[in-house]
Design brief:
This protein has 2 domains: 227 residues, Rossmann fold (3-Layer(aba) Sandwich), CATH 3.40.50; 91 residues, Nucleic acid-binding proteins (OB fold (Dihydrolipoamide Acetyltransferase, E2P)). Helix content is 25%, strand content 31%. Helix 2 packs parallel to helix 4, helix 3 crosses helix 4 and helix 4 runs parallel beside helix 5. The structure holds adenosine-5'-triphosphate. Adenosine-5'-triphosphate binds next to strand 2 and helix 1. It is an enzyme of class 3 (hydrolase). This is sn-glycerol-3-phosphate import ATP-binding protein UgpC. GO terms for molecular function: ABC-type transporter activity; ATP binding; ATP hydrolysis activity.
Length: 339
């Protein structure tokens, strides 16, 4: 028996005066999952989320939430909560008032409001700060207030648009873990927009990678990393990015293909025993590893990872080796061919 997805987008398109926002967006999102919409600026992530939220209406296609066709429903009728980058807190209201604002509007009884407030503040680690105003909180605490507000709303679907982008790197890491933990504990379905692949890869069960208003690949973080559908996905996912080069550089791969290889699949071998001779162009110490950047006349972006501190002099010539099974082969238009 197949269960129907909790959220379904079917052939959704949105244009403004003929200019493309998104097109052909078809996506099934299971209940209780964490889905990240990932891609570069302008690829259509926010438009997709806004269509799901009911803040925009599609020109084509259908949107279903919990089997109900909500394609033209108002945002308020879609039973979802939203968390934005900007927090969207009322500056003159306290933390507690901000969190229960929606419940008050919905005339939820005071006793229930206080219970829900306490639980949400407990979950988000904000107990003790209920009387502060947003201006008296750090960026991370403000974002936690926005999360607490989404939690008390009690909706099964929560949409998040770059909720961490105003926070510094350390805080981003901490709140990232909080969000993931919350999503698991509450069993809610999260659709999360980000342009940060580390964020998407570390939080999501499913990553939807977009470019120019179209979906490029839908899969687990591991799928996108290990079996990219095309050269765009191959280069976008992973740091350092996969090196891509013309197949003519290697024997036996023909002329018109693109070959991809990741740094961790390349070894430095004794002179004369490798498949390519390269020149070291930089060494970057990353902590646990050193990244050695390589120049080759036929291939850009090649690099090798060496354990620990292992700097190599710029200009050094080295031979590198890799096995065919670690190569990604793309056809003349950049689509994955094998494996
Ligand atoms: N209200 C609008 N009017 C006209 N064009 C729009 C509107 N909103 C978005 N677009 C266009 O639709 C495309 C997708 O925009 P969208 O905001 O969804 O991208 P994004 O991936 O979320 O980018 P970013 O990461 O920069 O927020 C862009 O070309 C954008 O200019």
């Amino acid at each position: 028996m197949t269960t129907s997805p909790f959220v379904k987008l079917d052939g959704v398109a949105k244009r403004w005066n003929g200019q493309l926002g998104v097109e052909g967006i078809t996506l099934d999102i299971p209940e209780g999952s964490f889905t990240a919409l990932l891609g570069p600026s302008g690829c259509g992530k926010s438009t997709t989320l806004r269509l799901l939220a009911g803040l925009e209406l599609p020109d084509e296609g259908k949107i279903l939430i919990d089997t109900k066709d909500v394609t033209t429903s108002a945002a308020s009728d879609r039973n979802l909560s939203m968390v934005f980058q900007s927090y969207a807190l009322f500056p003159h209201l306290s933390v507690a008032e901000n969190v229960v604002f929606g419940l008050k509007v919905r005339r939820v009884p005071k006793k229930e409001r206080l219970e829900k407030l306490h639980r949400a503040l407990e979950i988000t680690g904000l107990l003790g700060l209920e009387d502060r105003k947003p201006g008296e909180l750090s960026g991370g605490q403000r974002q936690r207030v926005a999360l607490a507000r989404a939690i008390v709303a009690g909706q099964r679907l929560c949409l998040m648009d770059e909720p961490l982008s105003n926070l510094d790197a350390k805080l981003r890491n901490a709140v990232r873990k909080d969000i993931k933990k919350l999503q698991r504990e509450l069993g809610i379905t999260v659709v999360y927009v980000t342009h940060d692949q580390t964020e998407a890869m570390s939080m999501a069960d499913t990553v939807v990678l977009m470019k120019d208003g179209h979906i490029q690949q839908v899969g687990s973080p591991e799928d996108l990393y290990s079996r990219p559908n095309n050269t765009f996905v191959a280069e976008f996912v992973g740091a350092p990015p996969m090196a891509l080069f013309q197949s003519s550089v290697l024997e036996g791969f023909g002329e018109d293909k693109t070959i991809g290889i990741r740094a961790e699949n390349i070894q430095i071998v004794p002179r004369g025993e490798g498949r390519m001779r390269c020149t070291v162009n930089e060494s970057e110490f990353l902590g646990a590893e050193t990244l050695i950047g390589l120049d080759h006349a036929g291939a850009e972006g090649l690099c090798v990872l060496k354990p620990g501190l292992s700097l190599m002099a710029e200009g050094n010539e080295i031979d590198i080796m890799f096995s065919d099974e670690n190569l990604h082969v793309f056809d003349a238009v950049g689509q994955r061919m094998v494996g």
